[in-house]
Design a protein that fits this description.
The chain has 6 helices and 14 strands.
Length: 282
């Protein structure tokens, strides 16, 4: 028996390869800093996420034989629209047939998709109604603002406490590269060489106030965020890669396409707090 593409499983001669986003692009901010609750295929469908406002529930001691206080839960939902991040390139047959060429190309394509998705996740401006896509970025949503971190971590401590006071648990601190650099320069006292975030010349651990830090180019200037990832609902579909010899058939070339559909929406703006880090005047 001769094994052929017509008698083998389709994955042995794929037109499209779909990979779960948590496997294909695990470093994407939407996978780390939001709670992915579903997926959608197309610009029109939305992922509807039901939730109960925890502040609407009442719990406490009840004396024996007396009626338990009746709660009136606030049953609500958040509708998450999704947009498609895509990348397309053209490559000659000869180049594609070089050793490891396709693997390297797909790897770089995934990196570009992550970059574009990260920028959109944080910065995408809200669409003009009635449009719902591209989905609004976190910074363009209704969130809290702690102000400027200057000279010490007091403002950052306030931001963390705001989230905790609203019933949340801070899961991540996001910082631009410049903001992280400025925080690492903070000293224990004026004139000291000892960093407030780490001792001596040792590098500061990627945590602040016991919370994991993610440094991302998708934040500009000296921007920062403290967030509870459970307060951001997200939808993310598989990352798909496809190769076609037909699009550029006359040039003996191939088209390689990568797509990733995702969206996110802030459910509780009190549990997402933005801030900036002051850069000292030279």
């Amino acid at each position: 028996m001769t094994v052929t593409t017509t008698t083998s499983a389709i994955s042995w001669s794929p037109d499209v390869v779909a990979l779960p986003p948590q496997d294909a692009i695990p470093d994407a901010l939407v996978m780390q800093c939001a709670t992915v609750l579903g997926s959608a295929d197309g610009d029109a469908p939305v992922v509807r996420v039901p939730y109960v406002d925890d502040t609407s529930l009442v719990a406490g001691f009840t004396p024996e034989g007396t009626n338990i206080t009746l709660s009136e839960p606030d049953l609500s939902e958040v509708a998450v629209s999704t947009g498609k991040v895509s990348c397309l390139l053209r490559i000659s047959r000869e180049q594609l047939e070089q050793a490891n060429a396709q693997e390297l190309i797909v790897h770089e394509m995934a990196k570009q998709i992550i970059k574009s998705a990260d920028v959109a996740f944080l910065n995408q401006t809200a669409p003009v109604p009635p449009a719902v896509i591209p989905p609004t970025g976190v910074l363009a949503s209704s969130i809290s603002d702690a102000g400027e971190v200057s000279g010490n971590l007091d403002t950052l401590i306030d931001a963390v406490s705001w989230i905790q006071a609203s019933g949340g648990t801070p899961s991540h601190i996001l910082l631009s590269p410049l903001a992280w650099a400025e925080l690492r320069k903070l000293k224990v006292t004026t004139g000291s060489a000892q960093s407030l975030l780490g001792a001596g010349s040792g590098d500061a651990a990627s945590t602040l106030l016991g919370i994991p830090v993610l440094v991302t180019f998708a934040l500009e200037d000296t921007e920062g965020l403290v967030l509870d990832r459970r307060s951001i609902a997200a939808a993310a579909s598989p990352v798909e890669y496809a190769t076609s010899e037909h699009a550029y058939f006359t040039a003996d070339s191939y088209a390689i396409r990568g797509t990733f559909r995702f969206g996110a929406k802030v459910m509780n703006g009190e549990r997402v707090v933005k801030f900036t880090v002051k850069v000292p005047t030279p």
